[in-house]
Amino acid sequence: MDQARQWIADANAVAILTGAGISAESGVPTFRGDGGLWREYRAEDLATPAAFARDPKLVWEWYDWRRGIIAQAVPNAAHRALVQLEIRKPQFTLITQNVDGLHDLAGNGKILKLHGDIWRMRCTECGANFPNRRVPLPKVPPHCACGAMARPGVVWFGEPLPEGIMQEAEHAAGGAEVFLVIGTSAVVYPAASLIPYAKQAGAKVIEINPELTAATSIVDCALQGPAGEILPQLL
Ligand code: OAD
User: Fold this and answer.
1) Chain Cα centroid distance, residue 157
2) For range 43-61, the mean pLDDT
3) pLDDT, mean of residues 10-35
4) Across the chain, what does the average pLDDT equal?
5) pTM for the whole thing?
6) What average pLDDT does the segment 196-215 reach?
7) Secondary structure percentages of the chain, helix, strand, coil, to 5
8) Domain spans of the chain?
9) Which CATH number fits domain 2-27+75-115+161-234: 3.40.50.2000, 3.30.720.10, 3.40.50.300, 3.40.50.1220?
10) 30 alpha carbon to ligand 1 midpoint, in Å?
């Protein structure tokens, strides 16, 4: 912990990768592990273009349920600590796999949302991309103003990430002196590839997670515990 604290204190350029675990203490369920199931479905069975084509109502019911939970959630001490870090560091990039919007709500500035945003929708026909915060949705599936069905504004398994975002994330990871990996199981690609990428580019990589993950063996320092407790101590 002391060594990691020193690395962060000395760094001008910091990049961060967050996953569902950073929002766990805000009451948002993670995808894998305890509480990761919805009805009898796994996220991997619902968050796909094929699942949506087969049963858009089912997929939208899952998103509507998640939006309902997230709408009640507020940022926790870990989200808040990252706002303080952004204020302190001349070069700071927050890269998240989360779609919950809690980093925005906490007050971070620019956020690279690799997997999109649950508070946006996209039209399946005209391509319109628009915000929508209705909870619960009055009608499932929801529709675009053009009359066609809308889909969640998130990235599904097998879909490309938003144009150019991986290049921006790699640029930040490659230039970082410290790379923090918080609350991710590090099994979903390409997001997880940023960890070895940062390491090879020379960053000190610090992981915060109560469990061992796919990344633990390659990081410079693994701090085991909940992000809301560890991060404020670290900064
Ligand atoms: P996962 O659900 O795979 O992993 C959550 C991680 O958070 C686990 O490693 C937990 O040990 C850890 N965790 C739990 N509580 C924590 C706490 N209080 N503090 C810190 N860590 C904690 O979530 P992700 O790795 O984010 O993608 O999942 C990656 C992607 O898979 C998601 O973005 C989503 C999902 O399917 C898409 O929807 C495309």
Assistant:
1) 14
2) 94
3) 94
4) 96
5) 0.97
6) 98
7) 40, 20, 40
8) 2-27+75-115+161-234, 34-72+122-154
9) 3.40.50.1220
10) 5
Question: What is the pLDDT at residue 34?
Answer: 74
The two domains 2-27+75-115+161-234 and 34-72+122-154 share their CATH topology (first three levels equal): no
The response to whether residue 184 sits with its C-beta less than 6 Å from ligand 1 reads: yes
Does the beta carbon of 31 sit less than 6 angstroms from any atom of ligand 1?
A: yes
**Dihedral of the CA atoms 198, 204, 210, 215 (nearest 10)?**
40
Residue keyed to tokens 């997929």: 59
183 lines ligand 1 (CB under 6 A): yes
pLDDT band at 220 (very low <50, low <70, confident <90, very high): very high
What is the CA(46)–ligand 1 centre distance, in A?
A: 16
The atom number, within ligand 1, closest to the CA of 157 reads 39
Ligand 1 test: best mutation among 112, 188, 189, 193, most atoms within 8 Å of CB? 188
Other C-beta atoms within 10 Å of 210: how many? 16
% of the chain exceeding 90 in pLDDT: 93
